[in-house]
Write a structure and sequence with these properties.
Length: 418
């Protein structure tokens, strides 16, 4: 079912609310949504004669889920090849990727490199059915860094891979180029700035421990973001890279697989937020070769994959907030919800859920707007069979255990009336 054109007046009754804040569900709750936002939440019956009444006895009502690290334009695991595909084909394939995310219950996602204002508008105007998009435009990389897919023997123009929709990033070298790139991305609709501050798996010329950008370049990006009333997110794996990014003022720390307790404590004191993305390494190891990941990239996976679960323990012990992220590519997007299961092997189910609700909303600077069931918040909901606090797997299965999904008061999936 596709989204309706206008928000509906909805009254959820007999709901058990799980939002990742409380250890147990809030039972026998009533929630009314009007004009796309939550108008009332009560433990007593609400009277609303004009609203559609939805009895959720025996089911769980949750805020729409939030994935803080996606690439909706990553239609292939071979990102260099992906960058050369026609924009029209990337847009068409991205529409399918985004629809799949919404049907898994993710009503908001933060795109970490590639999606532009056109894709965001296509969702907002209803041309594509997908999550609400928060975008950075093109991620920024130095020459030879992550998102420079030219390889050691390719001397084509530095912007060769960055002009198309399928390109995740753009290259900029030196403080002046970094400033200009930040300003251009913000002018083009970016809501935050993403920098590649460490080596990466998918690009050919940057080992994982490669330190990208000078400290002055990172500080310039942070200053430009702050001037625009926003923040910088950084791709990071190794402890030295994470530490220098925190010292430069980076707020959103992506991946963080090789973080140490000392740096995690520094990040927590600095009010940074981490965004681990463990599921992508498992899937790249299992399926990356089948979907076109080059051999030099496959050789780098275990450098970060094997430390992933330990990083969760370190960051939790340090009190470093962790938002939910997945970072999947191409056909591997279907594993998006399995990040919950991986995290729940270290964290409690409540902590894993909170990473995709309240903590994710804080990272996106949308507290009170999404990721919660509170008066004034947007009417984003998933209805789940059973209690995910006891069975986190109910959030997986491509939305199989979600008979209803609501986005901004619009029902986008409805199997309750069947």
């Amino acid at each position: 079912m596709t989204a309706n054109n206008a928000p509906q007046s909805l009254l959820f009754e007999n709901a058990s609310i799980v939002d990742g804040i409380e250890d147990e569900p809030r039972e026998s709750m009533s929630v009314i949504v009007e004009g796309g936002r939550i108008a009332e939440v009560s433990d007593v019956k609400i009277t609303a004669s004009a609203a559609r009444k939805i009895d959720l006895a025996g089911k769980t009502l949750m805020p729409g889920l939030i994935d803080c690290h996606v690439h909706v334009i990553a239609t292939s695991a071979n990102l260099g090849a992906n960058a050369l595909l026609p924009d029209s084909l990337i847009a068409a394939k991205s529409a399918g990727i985004m629809r799949g995310m919404l049907m898994r219950g993710f009503t908001t996602v933060r795109d970490m490199g590639g999606a532009d204002i056109g894709l965001r508008m296509a969702v907002e105007e209803g041309h594509f059915v997908g999550p609400r998009l928060v975008i950075c435009g093109k991620a920024l990389s130095q020459t030879g860094g992550h998102t420079d897919y030219r390889g050691p023997f390719d001397e084509r123009d530095s912007q060769y891979y960055t002009r198309r929709l399928g390109a995740m990033g753009r290259l900029c070298d030196g403080v002046d180029e970094v400033r200009r790139a930040c300003r251009q991305e913000i002018k083009a609709g970016a809501e935050f700035i993403k920098i590649m501050a460490n080596g990466g798996v998918s690009s050919p010329s940057d080992p994982i421990d490669f330190l990208s950008f000078s400290l002055s370049e990172m500080e310039a990006a942070v200053e430009e973001a702050r001037n625009a009333q926003t923040y910088v997110s950084a791709h990071l794996y190794t402890d030295p890279a994470i530490r220098r990014a925190v010292q430069a003022g980076v707020r959103s720390l992506e991946h963080c697989n090789l973080i140490t307790p000392e740096t995690a404590e520094l990040a927590a004191r600095s009010n940074a937020i981490a965004c681990p993305t463990l599921v992508t390494y498992d899937m790249l190891q299992r399926e990356g070769r089948d979907y076109g990941l080059p051999p030099e990239s496959i050789a780098k996976i275990d450098d970060v994959r094997l430390a992933g679960l330990k990083s969760l323990e370190i960051m939790r012990e340090a009190g470093l907030m962790m938002a939910y992220g997945t970072d999947l590519l191409g056909p591997m997007h279907r594993h998006q919800s399995e990040e919950f299961v991986i995290r729940a092997s270290v964290l409690s189910p409540r902590e894993a859920i909170r990473s995709a609700t309240a903590d994710a909303a804080k990272l996106l600077r949308m507290e009170g707007q999404i990721g919660c069931v509170s008066v004034g918040a947007r009417g984003d909901f998933i209805v789940v069979e059973g209690n995910p606090l006891q069975e986190i797997e109910q959030l997986t299965g491509q939305g199989r255990f979600m008979p209803m999904i609501v986005q901004a008061g619009r029902i986008v999936k409805d199997q309750l009336s069947h």
